[in-house]
């Protein structure tokens, strides 16, 4: 076993190593993801009024894609927000 493998092995087994996103980034990620969710909703509302002549299938597809983005961004934003509240309280 090389020296590098021994060092990385010790680091990953130590208590300092915690995989995942650092806790100090949770509030920042929560705000960014929730802003993404709300802004995509607003953009979809205003963009839908400007697009004329598009058929209902395109409008439905756009609504589903924006809805999925909003759901994912809002869900992950809520997870990070609750984690940030738990860490800093």
Give a verbal description of the structure.
The structure is a single chain. The protein is mainly α. The chain has one domain (21-88). The chain is 78% helix and 0% strand.
Task: Provide a count of the helices.
Answer: 3
Number of strands: 0
Classification by helices and strands: mainly alpha
Q: Roughly what fraction of the amino acids lie in strands? A: under 5%
Distance between the termini: 44 Å
Q: How many domains, in number, for the residues?
A: 1
Helix fraction?
over 70%
Low-confidence stretches: none
The whole-angstrom Rg is: 21 Å
Biggest sheet layout: none
Q: SSE order in H/E notation?
A: HHH
> Please, what is the average pLDDT?
74
- Morphology: elongated
Question: Main attributes?
Answer:
about 90 residues, mainly alpha, about 0% strand
Record the SSE blueprint:
Elements: H1 3-13, H2 26-50, H3 56-88
Care to give the gist of this entry?
With 89 residues, the protein is an all-alpha fold. It is built from three helices and no strands.
């Amino acid at each position: 076993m090389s020296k590098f493998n021994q060092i990385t092995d010790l680091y990953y087994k130590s208590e300092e190593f915690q995989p995942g996103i650092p806790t100090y980034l949770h509030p920042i990620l929560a705000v960014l993801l929730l802003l993404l969710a709300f802004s995509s909703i607003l953009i979809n509302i205003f963009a839908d009024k400007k697009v004329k002549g598009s058929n209902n299938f395109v409008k439905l597809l756009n609504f589903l894609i924006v809805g999925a983005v909003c759901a994912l961004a809002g869900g992950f934003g809520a997870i990070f927000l609750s984690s940030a509240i738990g860490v800093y309280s």
